[in-house]
Description:
Layout (H helix, E strand, L loop, with lengths): L2 H6 L3 H13 L2 E2 H8 L3 H13 L3 E8 L2 E8 L10 E2 L2 E2 L13 H11 L4
Antiparallel strand pairs: 1-3, 2-3, 4-5
Helix pairs in contact: 2-4, 3-4
Amino acid sequence: xxxxxxxxxxxxEERAALGLVRETGGIHQSDxxxxxxxxxxxxxxxxxxxxxxxxxxxxxxVYNGHTTYFIEPAARDLDFALLMAGDMLSPFIGxxxxxxxxxxxxxxxxxxxxxxx
Length: 117
């Protein structure tokens, strides 16, 4: 089943949770249920359902002195096209230091600016 098909079967709360996880790039489960305005039990069920569907990844975490999960979008859910400009991958991928004045970055930006959508 594709990601689109799986997402079509999500409840309203699950879609809202997935949107929040994607928007933040990662969130602690204890903050997720608070942001959604649901109980911790319901928040846990939502996160478990999204994890079982392969849409998020949960890892054990300690946050504010409590054991919880850190929730991130599943790797397969990431849109790597956002790193591309034409056939060029962003020059900052894998780089430890970023130089916004580099020729590679300038060329990448030019490709992005003149790309047809």
